Amino acid sequence: MICSNCKKNMATHCIEREEGDVYLCDDCFERLGAAAEYGAEPDFFVSFLGIEDTKERKCPVCGATLSDYSATGLVGCAHCYEAFGKDLMPSIRRIHGKTAHVGKRPLWDGKLLELQAVRKRLREELELALKEKRMKDAERINRDLRDISKMLSGDFGGEEDE
Q: What is the DSSP string of 31-84?
């Protein structure tokens, strides 16, 4: 029996499904086995991503081809993005909504961290004002500290950090 996915190698694995058995070679089973077991057709990623592989180009570093990506939805290495960039970007944009990694951002676009830094600075000022017996300044700083603490605990539902 020939592999249902690559249609090149002899199949060594059989996945039984209601729609019919899927036969996979060792390589395809390693890459696609779980997806095939849970109902995905061997060419599932090809139809979903809309990639047509007219040339069998290979990544110069890992040797992965665009059809490997089409079959599994996974690239072989970071250099695959350079080798197949023009073909990969439309499907990446369709799936993720953008093609550039922007990283994770703290809540409120950094306002949380800013408020925590201000609170820390105010605590230090309060300590200094109390040591120097500047009670009016200490009172003002204490009010500011309470306001910041209310904002932090009220908006996030937790207790303030010490």
A: HHHHHHHTT--TTHHHHHHT----S--B-TTT--BHHHHHHHS--SSTTHHHHS
